[in-house]
Structure formats: C-alpha cells, structure tokens
Amino acid sequence: MQIALLGGTGDIGEGLALRLAYDTPHEVVVGSRKAEKAETKAEEYETELSSRGLDVTIGHGENPDAAAGADVVVLSVPAYHLADTVDSVADRLDRDAVLVSPAVGMKRDDAGLHYNPPGAGSVTQLAAQSAPADVPVVGAFHNLAAGRLANLDAELGWDVPVVGDDADAVSLIADVAAGIEGLRPLRAGGLENAAEVESLTALLINLAANNEGLHDLGVRFT
Ligand SMILES: NC(=O)c1ccc[n+]([C@@H]2O[C@H](COP(=O)([O-])OP(=O)(O)OC[C@H]3O[C@@H](n4cnc5c(N)ncnc54)[C@H](OP(=O)(O)O)[C@@H]3O)[C@@H](O)[C@H]2O)c1
Q1: How far is the CA of 222 from the centre of ligand 1 (A)?
Q2: What is the CA radius of gyration of the chain?
C-alpha cells in the first residue's frame, strides 16, 4: 500500500516514515506544504535507512500531491491546522483512501499540559467532519512518542488504540500499526471514543515531565 504522511517532515511523521519503511512493505510518501522541504526530509530518511542496509525510495511532494493516489493518508500536522490540511487535499483524495488522525489538541499552563479538544469533541472527530463524506477517518498513533519511534534502535512495546466508525478502515489501520515491530493495535471503539484516547497523550507527557528517568512514554495495557 501507499501511505502518505502529510506534514511527514515533522516529529511524528519522521518516526512513522522510518518505522513504516523499515518494518513494512508499504510505500511511504512524505508530504509538506513545501515540495523542497518534503524532498529534503525524504532524502534524510533514505540516508538513515540506507545506513542500516535498507535501500528504499521515500516518495515526496506537496501535501495534495502526496495524498493523491495514496491508500492511507496520515494527518501528521498540529491539531490546530488539521482541518485546513484536510481541506487542502480533499479533492485529491482517492475515494478508497482512509484518513488517519494521530493529532491531539493540548494547551500548557503552569501545571503542565492539558487535553484541549475542539468543539467537535476530539481532533479525530474534527477530521471526520472535515473529510469528504465518503472517505473514512480513523484515529490512531496518538499515544506514540515521536523521539523513540524515530530511533530505530529502540524497542517499542506499545499499544496503539484505534478508533473509527468504519470497520474495514479500522481493520486496515490496525494492520498497518501491527506491521511496525513492537506495536500492538487495540480497538478502542467508534469515533465518539476518540477523546478518551487523545487525552492519554497529555497524561503521558505530564508523567514524563514529573518523574525522573521517564521520557518518551507510550501505553501498554495488561
Ligand atoms: N510529536 C509526538 O511525539 C506526537 C505523538 C503522537 C501524536 N502527535 C500528533 O501528531 C501531530 C504532529 O505532531 P508533531 O510533533 O510531528 O508536530 P510538528 O513536528 O510540530 O509538525 C509536523 C508538521 O506539521 C506541518 N505544519 C506546521 N504548521 C502547519 C500549518 N500551519 N499548516 C499545515 N501544516 C503545518 C509542518 O510540515 P511542513 O512545514 O513540512 O508543511 C510540520 O513539519 C500533532 O497533532 C500531534 O498532536 C505527535
């Protein structure tokens, strides 16, 4: 499958691009608002993979070009720019494509980070409201720590709660997650359950900030 990472030039995009290219047979395409930036980052990812003996081509392009023809389109952009990003690619999406939101809205004050969902209830639901009606949206990868994900030497051992209303789309994205070594997808319900999953991310970051020796946390349910 072809997997486009919009904003794949950023932290979570880098981690997903490297892991998907390293662990799975999927074709990865890095999207950006700027074609040149996408090209530079794709080359950087190829160099990292090549240093580990894997010669793969990472595609690249402006977000709408990256999204066109992709089977899975991951919205790896800040939550507050997610709806605009969906709008910018909407008419280029393949009608069989699945959109994936890993985005979490958070705000910081003196006490730390707080989950800050949009009016839609969650960023995943906002993505669903913004997407063309016939393109299913799935929430996944919210609770991964980008730094550890991008370090291919690091073992993960994390769960990936997956939410969505379209059973086939949820299965597809669960399979994508399962393809990455050390990730275990878990079904967490429909889109209305996305807020519960997204809010965990603020907890993970607060735990890391307040406890010595804990960083790059993920979740594992036992
Ligand atoms: N970082 C993590 O550990 C982590 C973990 C789980 C989930 N997430 C979620 O994943 C999403 C991305 O996180 P991140 O840490 O990767 O963010 P980031 O590095 O700050 O940004 C990712 C990319 O978003 C694009 N972007 C920035 N401003 C934009 C705008 N105004 N409009 C459209 N695109 C814009 C940029 O790409 P271009 O400049 O190339 O367009 C940037 O490289 C967030 O919603 C976050 O909540 C992050």
Answers
A1: 30
A2: 16
Among the atoms of ligand 1, which is closest to the Cα of residue 81? 32
**Ligand 1 atom nearest to CA at 149:** 3
Does any ligand 1 atom lie closer than 6 A to the CB of residue 124?
no
81 lines ligand 1 (CB under 6 A): yes
Query: Is residue 144 within 8 Å of residue 102, measured between CB atoms?
Result: yes
Q: Which of 65, 91, 173, 82 is nearest to 125 (CA)?
A: 82
Q: Enter the pTM of the model.
A: 0.98
Residue 33's identity, in one-letter code, is R
Closest CA to 128 of 159, 160, 170, 156: 170
Q: What is the pLDDT of residues 157-206, one digit of tens each?
A: 999 999 999 999 999 999 999 999 999 999 999 999 999 999 999 999 99
Name the nearest CA neighbour of 2 among 135, 94, 134.
Answer: 94
